[in-house]
Fold this protein.
Amino acid sequence: MNDIEAIFPVTREVFDALGVYVQCHQFRLLGTTNVNILEQTITQLARMNYAANLAFHHTEPECWLELENYRYSPTRSVMIDLANMLPHYNRARALEAVQLINESCGPLKTADDQILLGSLEERLTAPKDRVGLLA
């Protein structure tokens, strides 16, 4: 698989659903209860995917247009979740979403992006799972 094939779009719904889950466990996952940090974190994940797709699929707007002006909104996302219009994430599904976002950007991640993804992935990995990974 080449780098172009490794870059693929992730839908807004994934970012919104991940944001709702992170909001429910915000202090444990982000180390703060500051809503601005939550908004910035999810928006950064979406921009990461947007930038990667724009760079490699610039002639295919269906790959990046949906996320062009995306900004995570906790209120909007929670309302969409309450209306059952978003998939409900548990810890395992949230971890899968973070791994999908990581994979979707291929090699096009900055050092800050990699730190953010690594931190979220580590915090979403259950303690017993971490022990299994270390063995």
About this structure: The mean pLDDT is 90.
